[in-house]
Model the fold of this input.
Amino acid sequence: MAEILRYKIDGTEHEASPGTTVAAALLNVGVTAFRISVSGEPRAPLCGMGICFDCRVTIDGVSNVRSCLEPVADGMEIETGG
Amino acid sequence: MYDLASNRSQTAWRSKPVAKKKTEILVIGGGPAGLAAAEAASSHGKQVTVIDENPAFGGQIWRAEKSELSEKAKNLVEALEKNGVEMIASCTCVASLPDKRILALSNGKTFPIRYDKVIIATGAREQFVPFPGWTLPGVFGAGGLQALVKGGYDISGKRIVVAGTGPLLLAVAAYLKKKGGNVILIAERTDLLSLIGFGLSALRVPGKWREALELRKEIRGISYMTSSSVLWADGNGKLSRVTITNDNEESEIECDLLAIGWHLVPNLEVPTLFGCDLLACAVNADEYMRTSVEDVLSAGEINFVGGLELSLIEGKIAGHSAAENLEAARGLLAKRSRLLTFASSMLNTFLTDPEELRKAVTNDTIVCRCEDVPYGRVKDLKGFNEAKLETRLGMGQCQGRVCGSACEVLFGWEANSVRPPLVPLKISELANFETENK
Done:
């Protein structure tokens, strides 16, 4: 496994170490709006364990992925604010 | 057609390919109870498969740190694999099918798994109670923040308030501090006298007092308030301060993160799918962990939220019982009963009056986070169903997992959102259905 994983958040490249979840990676770079709620508020993870669905993002074109359950992979492209 | 599975295979973390679609004993949930069940069942020569929704085994308490399994989970998982137990991570049970099969989802594909007996060990999640500002980024469940830190979230230097109730708060605060978090306050809802009473009862249980002393050492230096809770959280787009009450005095505290923990509630979605009888918001299983449905067993926190030791023993009993070796199970019944008694006493200490919890809620407080339904729109409705019809509460992506138990606390409503599929499925995932003959 590569020592450093390179991935993109909304087009900008970032690095993470193996085993980091997508949710943790987004929090580490200061993302607060993982998604925008139906009334327009920014939302970020609440439960950290796949229950609340508030951390969902688009990963490699697949929408509504719970970022807390998904480890970062090399080359991953993450889109927030959906 | 967009092929989710092949698209993601280039980048995403892959769980092991599914080898078998048929097993003698299927365990749903790879936390302590599920792993103990698998170990016990396989010790009788049974063919066992364990699935878990998370990318790594161990459940919440033995959650992997950056995908490195905790020592205890690692030992168990290795022993299980040596025994030929099939372990499938990142695999979700989404439906119960006829003819003793489940529909599983993994890696963008759905497929059936056939079983003779199934042991459900889906554990518990945090109870969330709405309060003004709880939807702000930076507000987490206490266990939730701990899970995210284990997933690699760097909290060094962050100013953190830990609030709610129960011994979990101390454990979380100690962990966050160890990881470099600047834990400035633990606000415990329960009053000091009840806590002392609980402490005294814990002394009767071997090992518990040592645990408590260790924790005390670890959280030294963090200010600890009793009879104290969060009234509201503020911030512009993210959390910047909380207002807490302490013996009816209000004060504002600047902070970056709030970790709030009430009780844990069992994850009843899977047993509900199977049609298991429930009692007092838990699975109604007998002492051999058999549910009301033939060949369906349940173990651990879905039967009673009673902690690690109880989950382990229930897992073992369920494993023996599923392997039809009641003799082996019988030897564990007395120990289980002792652990149940202790767990019940703890529950009574930290039981919070719903009236107290409702006090903080205002008409604008969001109750359903998926559909942004505020308290004011639902408070006068008659029940969960009416709220769903009128406001879409409980009908978003989480399918009532968060607002369901919140409504139980706020209104005494029984949530009934469980239906297959248990998580939102994409058409492509259903289209990628693999039959048993493949």
